[in-house]
Structure prediction request, 361 residues.
Amino acid sequence: MRVKITKDIAKFVSPQSPRNVRLMAANGAIPLPPADLIKILYILCFDRDTEVKKRAQGNFKEFSTDIIVELINKDIEPGVIDFLVRYHKDRNKLIKGAILNKNTPDDTIAYLARAKSTAIAEMISQNHERIFRSDKIFNALMGNPMLSVATKERLRELRDRSEAAFGQSDDSEVVVMGVVDSDGGGAGGAEVGTGYGGAGRVAVPVSSAGVDKAKTSSEEEEETGNAAKRIMKMNVSQKIKLATIAEKEERTILLRDSSKIVVAATIKSPKITEEEILNVAKSKQASDEAIRLITLNKEWMKTYSIKLALVNNPKTPPSVAMRLMNTLSKKDIRDISNSRNVSSLISNNAKKILYAREKRS
Prediction:
């Protein structure tokens, strides 16, 4: 794999640099930030000099776990992530961060998907975008005996319904090798080939950054209308990619999409807010998949208003609504017991809970 580096890093890792300089860097004896140092050690793990390579590999594997755990949750190079997951002494502590990091190569996720761990397999199975763009990840999960049969069946069903999601990459993404440093790899930068193919290539979604400004209601309606027309012309793959970078208006449209995978990608977008989730929980037009994913999210289920909205929403499965009802206040349960907007099953259950609480008191 090729890694783009800055001029400051190049002097320590370039094949033309003096051996003693590379050896000093391999020993970690240089005053640089941890993010730069781990990149240097990674590159020197493939140095032509046996001693330099050996020392770099040793220090890479022993690099401070606390620092690595912090780095792996940030904008770290794909190759470095892959190498850490495979060879660091405390690699098991890095797996969650690697799975959640968008820079982690699909090949690395496929490697982790074969791990004999139910927790890891289930975590990976939640990232539909990765699974449906990578046969390696899908096949690794299907072949992992630690993944439940129910989850495998769900993934197969979703995959069968979204053949369009396996098409060629479109103009909404750029394929890059590695990650460019913050200076953009401009003047003075360099590119080093490690010769290590484990990290593969990473597809990075591209969006144009805009300047926030006040909009009138008519302007917002026009933008929403334009967004709806644009999204309507997209295939499933394009919608999934958009879901990760979409703005609020676009997410609102995507959440109403007929594809479960698109809805799932939108619900799991890192940009989605708790307010949006509450609106979905209240909506009687919300899809079953959206409601299901909300109820499975432990963080959202800590929010009282979301739980109350779900109990009042007829789209919520009765068994889930009745379970959540036990966490509500006496006042809200009384309101539900008298509500005409819920099923008789839910209102009767509310009455039973009220009776039981009054009897205990």
The first strand starts at residue 2 and ends at 5. The longest helix spans residues 344-360. Residues 337 and 351 are 5 Å apart (CA to CA). The radius of gyration is 25 Å.
